[in-house]
Amino acid sequence: MAHRHLRRIVLGLSPLALLLLVWHVATVAGAYSSVLLPAPAAVWLIFVDSWPDLLRHTGTSLVRVLLGVGLAFVTAVPLGLLIGRFRPVEETFDWTIQIFRCLPGIALIPLAILFFGIGDRPAVILIWFSAFWPLIITTIFGVKNVERTLFKVSRAALASNLMVFTDVIFPSALPSILTGLRLATGAGWLTLVSAEMIAVKSGLGYMIMYAQVMFRADQVVAGIILIGAVGLFFDQSIQLLRARLCRWQDGLVIQ
Amino acid sequence: MHLSVSDVSKTYDQRGSHVLALDHVSLDVAFGEFVCLLGDSGCGKSTLLQIIAGLEPASQGGILIDGRELVGCHPDTTVVFQEHGLFPWMTVLRNIEFNLKARGMAAAKRHEIAARLVETVGLAGFEKKYPHELSGGMRQRVGIARALATSPKLLLMDEPFGALDAQTRSAMQAELLRLWAAHRSAVVFVTHSIEEAVFLADRIVVMTPRPGRIGRIIDVDLPRPRDPTSEAFVHHVKIALETLHTPRALLAPS
């Protein structure tokens, strides 16, 4: 077990280490001026010197994305469960979903600013919008894949509609919902950083834009690294959550 | 409890054409009786079971339980499904508790009943396992335990041992008879295996396909446990075999 963990870490970090090496060599060789391409060491200094600022911006971004994705979860999952279960509800919403899910959240930034001004509100609403569609689609998919026999078992057991949702449909669809959550956090995070570049005056996106204006390439790169790191963190957390909640799938599916 | 299948017909719409799955089927099952529905695929035996369970409506006729028309599923009836129908995300114990939970029984009480049933079906030590961690025979034991949890008066079984290997299958048949002797109830058991039907049933309802009808009802008056190699046993198998393979016109009207 320890051996496998070690292997995972070594293999997982090796492309990143290679990238770091290429980056370092490029700066030493002087491929670009250091104003455009800062050395890894220079970026490291940003982390050392201005970590309180970085932490503050990262924290702001994190809160927004958690709020937006959380909001998407509590709205998309219940609606998705209903759509997947009841045909008329699906017939009502299907076309609307297919239209709206094709709109990139970023395209709605101008509208969001017009309606909600500058600040947290447009950012959170845009994240909610981006996270909503992957979640609702995977939820519907999850419900539709519930084994038909299990509905018969429930009916023969005289289970209430509510119990069918809580004890049959939801747990059965949970792996699919968590896949949706993974996609949703990715989409939300992507939208957030873009939104912060335009619609807000704080957060990692804003920090990067501001650093660009100030010709601080080292800060730009530090911001990019943080965005990537948070993305990885989200993904791993949801994977962990899935491993915990869907233990019954161990050995059933390849994870 | 008395089950009465009263002149039931069932038609399906299949790509625009009507398919007659059951054609005026009538049958009575008394409490404590073990009845097998025997027939080749397409004879409507599973459909009939679904209708008795209240999971499918009859197109014509109806089901009477103690003289009352069945609407939906009956609380005294439980079903053991083909391929077990267990919830893959529930442990053995929680699967067995499901029917009790659906009836609103308090958690402590249903744990107690489920724990006792785990012992009864010989799965002690496997309470916390998930269905996919069990063998086929063990899964079906869980399915049977779940069905017995509510102390049903009518137990409906839809080819429950169809997916099992021959050895496990005969072990499960003996096990089922033991449980049936302990938890007396009426059993309607669907199978396409003649030997299984003769081994288990008090009466064998032989069904013939296209459209599904009752060909003949064979009384099996052999003492249990039955010996599949005995002359009487083989004789009953022969009768069933003949019925299955005789053109309908030659059969006495049922």
From TrEMBL, chain A:
Give the highest taxon in the source lineage: Bacteria
Q: Where's it mainly located?
A: membrane
Positions in coiled-coil regions? none
Q: Which InterPro entries match?
A: MetI-like (IPR000515), MetI-like_sf (IPR035906)
* Membrane topology listed for this record: Multi-pass membrane protein
Task: Kindly give the Pfam families that the UniProt entry links to this protein.
Answer: BPD_transp_1 (PF00528)
Q: What are the recorded Gene Ontology BP terms?
A: alkanesulfonate transmembrane transport
The record lists the membrane-crossing segments as 62-83, 95-118, 124-143, 155-174, 220-238
Provide GO CC annotations from the record. Answer: plasma membrane
What span is annotated as the signal peptide, if there is one? Answer: none
Compartment list: Cell membrane
Keywords for the protein's UniProt record, in alphabetical order = Cell membrane, Membrane, Transmembrane, Transmembrane helix, Transport
Keyword Coiled coil appears in the UniProt entry: no
Q: What does this protein do?
A: Probably part of an ABC transporter complex. Probably responsible for the translocation of the substrate across the membrane.
Regarding protein family, the annotation reads: Belongs to the binding-protein-dependent transport system permease family.
This chain's protein is named ABC transmembrane type-1 domain-containing protein
Q: Which organism is it from?
A: Rhodoplanes roseus
Automatic annotation (TrEMBL), chain B:
Which InterPro entries does the UniProt record give?
Answer: AAA+_ATPase, ABC_transporter-like_ATP-bd, ABC_transporter-like_CS, ABC_transporter_ATP-bind, P-loop_NTPase
Q: Which SUPFAM superfamilies match?
A: P-loop containing nucleoside triphosphate hydrolases
Q: Which UniProt keywords apply?
A: ATP-binding, Nucleotide-binding, Transport
Keyword Transmembrane helix in the entry? The reply is no
Q: Ranges for the ABC transporter domain?
A: 3-234
Q: Which GO terms describe its molecular function?
A: ATP binding; ATP hydrolysis activity
State the family it belongs to: Belongs to the ABC transporter superfamily.
**Protein known as:** Nitrate ABC transporter ATP-binding protein
Q: What is the lineage of its organism?
A: Bacteria, Pseudomonadati, Pseudomonadota, Alphaproteobacteria, Hyphomicrobiales
